[in-house]
Every structure is written in structure tokens, then in C-alpha cells.
């Protein structure tokens, strides 16, 4: 990556595209900018929905784990009821 950056500086380039997917994106953006914008917008929307869904699932899982941990602890200790 550093070599590519140095070569770009020597040639006076402003941008460096390293991966094949990045080069495809640049190529298609040159000829179909609206299509690329639409695809990127959709990808960003999907990734943000997926992230929020994963956050919700992990919160639910953590809550469920803490409740089950408390139940196990309570079953080991038992209720504090005086004999009588």
C-alpha cells in the first residue's frame, strides 16, 4: 500500500485505487454515476439496518443471559423464608 501511494505521488496522481472492486467501482462510476450512487445508497442502508438489528439481538441476548444467571443464583441460594 505504501509503494502504491509513493508511485501515485511520483506520478502526480490525487487518488489511489488499490483493490479490484475499487477499480470496478471507479470504472462504473465514470460511465454510470447514478447507478453507482443507487447501489452505494442501498448498501449503506442495508448495512445500517443489519447493524441495528444485530445490536437489538445482542441486547436481547445479554438481557436473557443476565436473567438466567440471576435465576440460577437464586435457585442455588434458595428463598430466605424462616422455618416455622
Write structural notes for this entry.
With 84 residues, the protein is mostly helical. It is built from three helices and no strands. The longest helix is centred in the middle third of the chain and has 45 residues, at 33-77.
Arithmetic mean of pLDDT: 75
- Tell me the count of domains: 2
Task: Tell me the β content.
Answer: under 5%
The CA-CA distance between the termini, in Å, is: 77 Å
Write down the Rg: 27 Å
What oligomerization state is this entry in? single chain
- Order of secondary-structure elements: HHH
Q: Which percent bin holds the helix content?
A: over 70%
- What form results from the Cα inertia axes? elongated
Number of helices: 3
Low-confidence stretches: none
Reported for the largest beta sheet, the result is: none
Q: Nutshell version of this structure?
A:
The protein is built from three helices and no strands. It is an all-alpha fold and 84 residues long.
Write the layout of secondary structure elements.
Blueprint: H1 2-11, H2 20-31, H3 33-77
Keywords for this entry:
84 residues, mainly alpha, 2 domains, 3 helices, 80% helix, 0% strand
Amino acid at each position: 500500500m505504501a509503494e502504491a501511494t509513493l508511485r501515485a505521488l511520483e506520478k502526480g496522481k490525487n487518488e489511489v485505487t488499490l483493490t479490484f472492486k475499487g477499480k470496478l467501482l471507479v470504472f462504473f462510476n465514470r460511465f454510470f454515476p447514478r447507478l453507482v450512487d443507487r447501489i452505494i445508497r442501498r448498501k449503506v442502508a442495508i448495512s445500517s439496518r443489519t447493524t441495528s438489528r444485530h445490536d437489538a439481538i445482542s441486547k436481547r441476548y445479554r438481557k436473557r443471559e443476565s436473567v438466567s444467571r440471576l435465576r440460577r443464583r437464586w435457585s442455588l441460594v434458595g428463598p430466605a423464608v424462616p422455618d416455622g
